[in-house]
Amino acid sequence: MAAPSEGDAASLLPDLPGGPLQAYRARASFCWKELALFLEGEDMLRLKKSIFSALEDDPLFARSRGHELSLEKHQELTFLRCKRVLGRALLRVEDMVRNPLSVLTLITCLGTYDWSLAQKFLLHLLVFGFAIYKSGSERHLEYLPKILSMEIFGCFAVTEVSHGSNAKAIRTTAHYDPATEEFILHSPDFEAAKFWVGNMGKTATHAVVFAQLYTPGGRCHGLHSFLVQIRNPKTLLPMPGVMVGDIGKKLGLNGIDNGFAMFHKVRIPRRALLNQTGDVTPEGTYVTPFKDAKQRFGASLNNLSMGRAIIVAMSVVNLKLAVSIALRFSATRRQFGPTDEEEVPVLEYQTQRWRLLPYLAAVYALDHFSKWLFLNLAEFQQGWEDRSTRQAELGREIHALVSGSKPLASWTAQRGIQECREACGGHGYLAVNRLGDLRNENDPNCTYEGDNNVLLQQTSGYLLGLLELRLQGGARLESPLGTVDFLEAYPDILDQRFSCPSVAGCLESSVPLAAYEWLVCYLLRESVQKVNQEKRSGSSDFEARNNSQVYRCRSLALAFLELTVVRRFHEYVHQPGVPPPLRATLQRLSALYALWSLNQHTALLYRAERRRRCPGGRDRPSR
Amino acid sequence: MAAPSEGDAASLLPDLPGGPLQAYRARASFCWKELALFLEGEDMLRLKKSIFSALEDDPLFARSRGHELSLEKHQELTFLRCKRVLGRALLRVEDMVRNPLSVLTLITCLGTYDWSLAQKFLLHLLVFGFAIYKSGSERHLEYLPKILSMEIFGCFAVTEVSHGSNAKAIRTTAHYDPATEEFILHSPDFEAAKFWVGNMGKTATHAVVFAQLYTPGGRCHGLHSFLVQIRNPKTLLPMPGVMVGDIGKKLGLNGIDNGFAMFHKVRIPRRALLNQTGDVTPEGTYVTPFKDAKQRFGASLNNLSMGRAIIVAMSVVNLKLAVSIALRFSATRRQFGPTDEEEVPVLEYQTQRWRLLPYLAAVYALDHFSKWLFLNLAEFQQGWEDRSTRQAELGREIHALVSGSKPLASWTAQRGIQECREACGGHGYLAVNRLGDLRNENDPNCTYEGDNNVLLQQTSGYLLGLLELRLQGGARLESPLGTVDFLEAYPDILDQRFSCPSVAGCLESSVPLAAYEWLVCYLLRESVQKVNQEKRSGSSDFEARNNSQVYRCRSLALAFLELTVVRRFHEYVHQPGVPPPLRATLQRLSALYALWSLNQHTALLYRAERRRRCPGGRDRPSR
């Protein structure tokens, strides 16, 4: 991309205001406007500007400075703001289709302003609305205009009090009654109450409810989703048989009304079943296009991938905001100095740089990865009716990437925000400086749409499965997006020795990239060996997998994702299209992220070397 | 200590209520009552019980469940509760003197209930009150009964908007005017406003204010403290010339009114100077018992050590609460299982145990250390008029230990609470389950009474200073509490090789203890070499110290404290007085904490071994 013309830059990227940061900014080795244009592209910058301007110009979005917002008031405001955002049509459907990144941009811009608003909007339009569009059929299309106009307001109800991670074990039931052509929705006890459901607490009129589908005769066909009216849209009073309410204050995101619901033999029409993965005939016969129940279950929860990919982007925004606050503070805050008279900005201290700059690099690397992942997922979802092997393989690869990158991004952000909070000292503890909100509102990214530690098992399971296929004499080890292709050279990589002659020669991301390939191969081998050893000692598959997580499968999944992020960013900053004045800066960011990230695994790298030296030796602690 | 008699146990430690935890509790290999009695002692258990009973029986301390407390209401309630606690005289002065641990017990019991209350009480009585008692003289004794009756309410004002860590650079001035025998207290600009001062926002009538003392002729004698009335105790209106107010919402501790204050040429009597470290005669001559200004400055900030030691204990309580919540949840929460029908408690999963159990061990090790430190500090402070060399050495040792253990304890708690929050999944994100409050209210422990990273420099500075003295041919390397005595064998320790023949043989805290001694010696050598190398390349002392923090001095300080905590707990659990039925459990906790803690340094242990193998070789990355 060419450098911006003067007109573009002036309108899209006005000069920053003067002030205490000017001294540092004047020392920059590159033009920040050129960097912004290269990373975001003119279209996205324009979209961001239009969204932020819309919020800035509307008094409904004014911050309530100086007085505390009660929980109720915050929830009410968030609902009104959500309605306003939908009404303003900040993004046209054709723009979304043309460039799926625009959806991500809208969500993250709203989140930059307030995550409660972004999530309320996301839950209604993209989770609830998209579920009806994707899991329903023509008979449900009538709801879409009502969703867009907020004539009905929605939520997505999977989790129950006692089942979150293990969604398959959800206990709400939907028994089909052919006499009236209705399903009877029922919560057997309080532990089966829907719980945590965003928008359900006070505002949703409709819910997509996951329940175990039973046909006459008592046969269970597993989890299906139903479109259920839970409140009167005019009065917001609960529908008969529905007990629904707010679950109370959370650590953050209190503008969202998270709710619970219990269904007492609630009758809903047969056509309320979102029947894309399975349907019931008026007479009560279950029909499904899927032969395999497991495959059907996977398809019915497919939407979760999109949620997870968005969480990756949300985490990146949180880290971006925190790092910006902390670095700007560090550049202006002076404390101590070589003499009693002269104090230096705390950013000049080695410790402060060491704490903050790697997170700055992480923002760039993860931001790039997040967009790449989202675009691939969007493309995959557009081909959802494609039943080819490649499409299935792509689905598995994306599922593994999404399942591993949500943990990586949300944890990196969580740690980074904490570091930023501390790096700003007392001022970082003042609510107005926002680091607390960022920490509290990033925190659930580690939990919802799949607990991080549980999700990582999906990623390691994918890698172990691929290797097993390969060892059974299967096809080449490769994947549609190429993230696992290096594993084809698995034995050779494990034989490689690190050979960088100097420290200076390591300050380039290709060096940690190669080390990461080796590390992933090593952890893959360790994981396979551990699982096999567990099985040989009589463990069931379930036990063998559980007992191989710590130091093996869990580390494998994280290292694989780190490698993928490092590789994507390395390739991105080394492509010929990078404007020459930006190359050095971007390549340093790439090297910093990769080396810092790899640094977590140093003990393993040394240990492996030690084992190689004494191949027969026991693996004993050493110093 | 003997096992409790039946009567004792029944009254002090009633049986736990039945419920879903019973199955796990029934499997315990030891008697929890015996453990509690051994760890706490009967006196402390009795005191705890009396404090908690007093709170439970008084409606003023009832939790406001179900509705949100506004910031103002929380602040008001906290003030009233503080007054009630003082009025109830939960602890007699003679008990405090007889057993200083009782003070810690009172603070931590109040904090277990609500940290805002504990801190309000602590700031008024022990920080403000103690400062007057310790830094003032007979002329200030009249204030003490008023403090105890809360006729006046106090705060302790050091920090300013732009100076926290660098307290020496505080800019509030106090010019002495012999004409009226008054000091003129003045804040030159907003950046010199007192800021963050707990209790100052709305409730304090008096403040101990730190300011630069000037005598006629314009000579500055450095920082001194003054007792200043800031509000009318009847109306709470500010005194003339004092601009005072609340700094607004914080990430937590919102029951405390943190405030700011600016003084506009406020005249205060000469006798308001807390004159223990220096005084001004009516004519305006400065007199001090200290010859050395640095020594005087140290003495004037001496109180901070007590604050820091209490923070160590506060952090331990936070971790204790979080770990209890998370472990109990994990023992009852079931998710997934070997079959679709049978789900297992999440505590049975390897990952969950790996995440939580080390923090359980950390609670025990740090709790023991915290009490030991507090007792030593109390003893040291009782001998504050002792001018012996041993007392001075003890002061330096305790300062180094306090400065390093506040970071270690507050960070361990902060990370542990986050892990507990995540380990409880969605339910951990619900405010009522308290993990959010614990995280938010532990967080400032990393910052106040000295930023953790800054404080660590005090600890490394102490060690480097001792070694320098030793190398200059000084006396033996030893200290009154013996925490550094092992360094006398510094070269021998560095020559030692790790030689534990089996993994099983390492599951004992003496093994990591020995490794820690080696590690501290290694890091000490690395730190000295780095500082010297910096100086040889032309760095000033200031630069050399700053540029040697990361990977060297900072790691050294942390490792030294970890070693000290490990050593204290190792010795404690191996003493003959441990009841035989508790030995195995306590020794396993000791081993777990020590090994887990040492595990952070594995890369360094490998690296050092590699260097030894190739002594001439460059220190290059390796795998």
Write up this protein.
The structure is a homodimer of 623-residue chains. With 623 residues, the first copy, chain A, is of the alpha+beta class. Chain A has helices at 6-12, 22-26, 32-40, 42-56, 71-88, 93-98, 101-113, 115-135, 143-148, 293-300, 303-332, 350-382, 389-423, 425-428, 435-442, 452-471, 490-495, 510-536, 541-546, 549-574, 580-598, 602-613, and strands spanning 154-157, 173-177, 182-186, 194-198, 206-215, 219-229, 242-246, 258-263, 266-269, 279-280, 286-287. In chain A, a hairpin with a 4-residue loop joins β2 (173-177) and β3. Chains A and B meet through α12, α13, α14, α15 and α18 of A and α12, α13, α14, α15 and α18 of B. Chains A, B: Its main location: other. Chains A, B: This is Acyl-coenzyme A oxidase. Chains A, B: Its cofactor is FAD. Chains A, B: Keywords: FAD, Fatty acid metabolism, Flavoprotein, Lipid metabolism, Oxidoreductase, Peroxisome.
